[in-house]
Design a protein that fits this description.
alpha/beta, Glutaconate Coenzyme A-transferase, 2 domains, 6-stranded mixed sheet, 14 helices
Length: 433
Amino acid sequence: MSQLPFVSADEAVSHLHSHGHIHLSSVASVPHILIDALCRRADRGEIEDLHFHHFHTEGPAPYSEARYEGIFFEQGFFVGPNVRANVNAGYADYLPVHLNDAPRLYRRGLIKLHAALVQVSWPDENGCVSLGTSVDCSPAAIETAEIVIAVVNKNVPYASGDLIPLSSIDYFVQDDTPLVTAAYKTPTALEETIGRNCAALVEDGACLQMGIGSLPNALAAQLGGHKDLGLHTEMFADGLLKLIKTGVINGRRKDIDNGKVVASFLLGSDEVYSFLDHNDGVLMKDIAYTNDPWVISRNKKVTAINSATEVDLTGQICADSIGTRIFSGTGGQLDFVKGAFLSEGGKSITAFASRTNKGKNKIVPVLAEGAGVVTPRADAHWMVTEWGSVDLSGKSLQERAKLMISIAHPDDRYALDEAAFRRFGPHYHNFSL
């Protein structure tokens, strides 16, 4: 494969012009060598007004920094820790979109892409490359961008699923920088309790969706005794890898992609990335497929586990902000909430600690001013905290209030009950569940 017509990163980005929209491959596979080359052009005053779009990215994010104001403008589809402060300071921005819908922004021309900057594996014998750990909405970007620049990296695993023909790429750059890794987060005792409460709702044969972090790890650690679980998710990491390797997750009962793990992006250890390489048991797919509620629903017993920053007494779920401060993004939460509810025997679970690390209650009478409703109350189903689990499906507002209060921190329940009484009036206490 040494015949690839490699050019330097500086040569590749010299073909980009000002006032364009740029897509970046995301998460662990950001093409930092191309970003650095664009920064050099910006420092020389050669380019301005570039708009960047992507899922959350790992590593430095100079395209969001104040020093490039007027030159770069970050408009990501999800806000990670590396851009959060700059987004909330106004130097960068957040573009709200369900992950399932992100590729449509490109394919329908709602965002007209000048360039797609992606990172890929070495080509196979058929002249195709893999997007490795980060497929996300890059296939749509490659289809629609005027210019496609691919960084070919030996550390990008060759993943089965959606592949990219070499003919779709205009410029090739070689770089062997290792992918960004994330350490396994050991769950706290509180998270272990929440994990147990969630695991009690997971049936044998369920098809799982969950993310990464200490809470999903806590849940995964409680599933070792389950049988024939499937995995159709937007992402997975080390906690779920253990269940795959031990055969707890085997996909035998999946109705589509039987026996396969399906995901769109990964973030974890080198062990996760190595497991992905040339593994036909894992399909890395366009997010328009993994997060399509209809596709999700085709498997039975879909069990979607997501989180929240705040939930009100009626079941409105905020997961992207803390008041007006953007914390993350809409992500794929509602995609999987909808898909799970449509699935035969499916469950949607929102799992969270009843209080923040600073002792502030997360179950509240009303959401904070400016808080984003990621999952509307009509779509809220199972709620899980360290104090138990309740199902809001088919429940009225007053019934929901009583259920939510029952899983709040005991020290917060009296005040929440008083707030519910003020909201619903004297009849609130005159019925039982």
